Every structure is written in structure tokens, then in C-alpha cells.
Amino acid sequence: MERDDYLTAIKPRMPEKRFIHTIGVMETASKLAEKYGEDIKSAETAAILHDIAKYANETWMIEIVKEHGLDQRLIDWGPELLHGPVGAWIAEKEFNITNSDILNSIRYHTTGRAGMSKLEKIIFISDMIEPNRNFDGVEKLRKKAEVDLNKAMRACIRHSIKFLVKTKQKIYPVSIECYNDIIKIE
Question: Checking phi first, is residue 160 left (phi over 0); if not, alpha (psi -120 to 50) or beta?
Fold first, then answer.
């Protein structure tokens, strides 16, 4: 499938505001892929499909996790974390995506993980800094993304963890592993 085919396929699955967000993630990911020497088509595909399960029924997503051997810890974390791994499953089963880098970029776009590929970092960062995002510190994150991918990833995962601590939410263990891994990279 080509970019426009993916966009046509996902549009009915989300509200207009989320579709606009997805376009922003795609455009940001495309720019970062070009800047950092990543395959632009892979970045666009991962970005377009990253929220494919965002509005899926939570009970259905839990069934997918149970039936298809996904990380069982996800069941206790709700749709905010379920949608990444289930989205990767949808990308593989429905859209015939076989590229593991694209699938992992979708799977971990919310949590990050230790040992992230360049594409995974691009999608994680793009989801956080796309032009429609508006939160304290987003401009600093955007500037870091223009200079150094690893420093931007470090800043983004740090921002995410700080937000979860500030709002008294649980932190998924994979996100802690991501943080611990990325702070080792200079």
C-alpha cells in the first residue's frame, strides 16, 4: 500500500482531531527520517498506523492480547498502553506489514523500550512533538529533535516519566527500561 491508501484506511477509525494528529506525526517523522538517514516510506507508514487501535474497544484489545501472546502485563494498564501493541498486531494482520522495525515503532510509540531502533525513536519523538501538540516544554523538545536524535529521545522519555509522576500515574516497566537504556547513550 502507498501512503494515501493507508491514510484513507485509517481515517474512518478515528475522530478528525486524531486524524490531524496522525498527519502531524507523519510529516514530523518524514522530516526526522530524512534528517537522520532513515527510510522515509517506513517512517510515514509507521506514523500513519501508530494510532490505528487508539479508539478500538478496550475489551476487544484485551482479547487480542490474551489470544495472540502479547505482553500480558498490558491488560492492567488500559487502552492508553494497549493501543500500541494491538495497533502493531492490526498493522501486521490487516495491512500485511512484515517489517519488524515498523511494527516495533507502532508497538512502542507510547512506552518506548530499551534498545530502540532509529525508526522507533523517530516515531516516539514525532508523536510527542508533532505541530499540533501544545504543552509546556514542547518547543525545547522540538529543538532537540533538530539537533540530536538520542538527546531528543532522552528528553522525550524524561518528559513522559515526569508527567506520569506529577499526575500520580503508574509507570509501565518498559518505559523505565527505555529511560535507563537511553541515558547510557551519549
Answer: alpha
CA-CA-CA-CA dihedral for 130, 132, 135, 141, to nearest 10: 20
Longest dimension (CA), the chain: 42
Euclidean distance between CA atoms 76 and 171, whole angstroms: 12
CATH number of the structural domain spanning residue 172: 1.10.3210.10
Give the pLDDT confidence of 61-85 residue by residue, as tens digits: 999 999 998 888 888 888 889 999 9
Overall size of the chain counted in residues:
186
What Å distances lie between residue 6 and 12, 13, 46, 83, 148, CA to CA?
A: 11, 12, 10, 17, 29
Q: If you search the block for the grid coordinates 518505559, which residue do you land on?
A: 175
The answer to pTM > 0.90 is yes
Number of domains in the chain: 1
- Tell whether the torsion through CA atoms of 156, 161, 166 and 167 is positive or negative: positive
- 104 vs 42, 56, 110, 112, CA distance in Å? 12, 19, 11, 9
Containing structural domain, residue 52: 3-182
